Amino acid sequence: MEVAGKYHINVGSASQMLGRVTQLLRVDEGDRARTLASDAIEQLRISIAEASQKRMDEIKKTLETLGPFSPKLDKDKLARMDMAMVGGDFDRLLPDIEEVSKIISEHVKRLGVTGRLIHTLGSMEAAIAQYGGKPSSVSSLVVKAYEAYRKGNTKEAEAILGIALGEEVETLSPMLVTRLSNVSLRLKAAHEKGKDVRDLAVLMKQAVFSLRSRNLMQVLTLLPSLESKLAVEEEEEKPAEEPKPEPEPAEPRVKRIRGTGRAVSSTATSTASQAEPSASSPAPAAKAERPPIKKGSSYLVFEPRPSESLSIFLEAKGGNKGILLTTTFPPKITEDTPLLNTEIVWISESSGWKETVHPKTLDHEISAYIFDFLREESGGAIAIDGLGYLISSNGFARVEKFLKGILDVASSKKVTTVATLQPQALDDKDVAVLKGMFDYTF
Fold it and tell me: pLDDT tens, 355-409?
């Protein structure tokens, strides 16, 4: 709580939970108080992790936007901050975040108009990338602007940045016209179905006026709100599906109660005749369909080779980017399962693949691959095939710490995580710990 207060972190329900602990202790309910205190501490840790990740993303986005105009920072410190984030070392991370944020803030103020132009340019580039377009080639203009600024020619630098903004406007404007046209058609369809879309129509008029005035930043502010509110209206008009009976899972499914480490089994009960078929019984039915995958959840799959885990990974990834770290030679996977828009990293002591990491580089190269992905992506998926191999190379405690950091950050960014463990690879105690870390096991 002291750390959260010092760095102005909203701890959410953790504060209320700790207050309840105090009340329980007053009436001598020690066991309940200890359980609730454990939950509160875990919730507090998650709140601090999410806030820290958000601050780290803001820092890196600002530096990326500033480009050559960025302040000079200690690269080793930034790398240490990444590692502290993965390892959950917030006592070391939060002071560094405060220090770096202050340096950047003061530097941007000194840039003045130049800094505001660069910020606008960065916002436009991000929008072009988000809407699937190819950004204009303005990097050379930014470099020229920086050279002029460095020589003291501020006005010339601002003029060059203005030219760069003009190029970005030419790229972004047609994309915004297309998206607004799509929204207009959807609004018309909703109106014809009797929906009250008057508030959305007002937003639409504001967006069109801003586009005509070439105020693209205002359009970029209004468009996401329009699209999200319209999506809600369209979702409400969908007919409700008839409830389907819950299929019995072929294997136990375990869901973790976040913050407690406890797991609850959701295995359906069955009759003795179903559990123990006679020798003359027909072949068992195909494996029951698993529940739909939830974005941002984590899955632990027990299987000798990646099969079900890849299926979960692909479903969770959808059209987003993904990263697969595997102990299986990648061509053996891709020859059976096409992995589009997926970075594949081979965990091996050998070479022969363009992206190969040694299994003992868990805290460095392996973590860096995953954390770089998490820093750049939201809504995608991570697959880690071969936990047993990593554990045998690094020890259980290090892998447990590694997973804990990754799972928390991935959950906060709605990135789904899938990990594979060979059956009987670990003793029951270690397996139980791993199950407690993941939301679901198969």
Answer: 888 888 887 888 888 988 888 878 889 999 989 889 988 889 889 988 988 898 8
Q: How far apart are CA 4 and CA 326, in angstroms?
A: 37
- What six digits make up the tokens of 161? 């940045």
Residue limits of CATH 3.40.50.300 in the chain: 254-266+294-441
In tens, the pLDDT along 246-285 reads: 555 544 444 444 444 444 444 433 333 344 444 444 444 4
DSSP states of 12-30 as a string? THHHHHHHHHHHHHHTT-H
Rounded-to-integer distance, Cα 47 and Cα 177, Å: 39
CA dist 39 → 27, 197, 259, 299, 441 (Å): 19, 43, 5, 22, 22
Adjacent-strand bridge partners of 323 = 343, 382
Q: In this model, does residue 238 exceed pLDDT 70?
A: no
CA–CA dist 403, 325 (Å, integer) = 13
Nearest 5 degrees, angle CA 95-CA 99-CA 103? 170
Q: What is the pLDDT of residues 176-212, one digit of tens each?
A: 787 778 788 888 888 888 888 888 888 888 888 887 7
> What does the radius of gyration of the chain's CA atoms come to, in whole angstroms?
26
Q: Identify which of 288, 295, 330, 246 has the alpha carbon closest to the alpha carbon of residue 418.
A: 295
Residues 404/85, Cβ–Cβ less than 8 Å: no
What DSSP assignment string belongs to 78-118?
Answer: HHHHHHHHHHT-HHHHHHHHHHHHHHHHHHHHHHTHHHHHH
Total residue count of the chain as it appears in this document: 442
The sign of the CA dihedral 76, 81, 86, 92 is positive
Long-range contact set of residues 257-263: C-beta below 8 Å, sequence gap at least 24: 258/42, 258/46, 258/439, 259/38, 259/39, 259/42, 259/43, 259/46, 260/35, 260/38, 260/39, 260/42, 261/42, 261/436, 261/437, 262/436, 263/432, 263/435, 263/436
Under DSSP, the state recorded for 153 is -
In degrees, rounded to 5, the angle at the alpha carbon of residue 233 between the alpha carbons of residues 228 and 239 is: 130
Per CATH, the architecture of 254-266+294-441 is what? Answer: 3-Layer(aba) Sandwich (3.40)
Please give the structure tokens belonging to residue 361: 């580089």
For residues 167 and 291, what is the distance between their CA atoms, to the nearest angstrom?
A: 47
Residue 423 corresponds to which tokens in the numbers above?
């059956």
Given a cut of 90, is residue 323 above it in pLDDT? yes
Backbone phi and psi for residue 416, each to the nearest 5 degrees, phi listed first: -80, 140
Cβ 438 vs Cβ 411: under 8 Å: no
Q: In what order do the strands lie in the sheet with 381-385?
A: 263-265, 254-256, 440-441, 298-302, 416-421, 381-385, 322-326, 342-347, 356-357
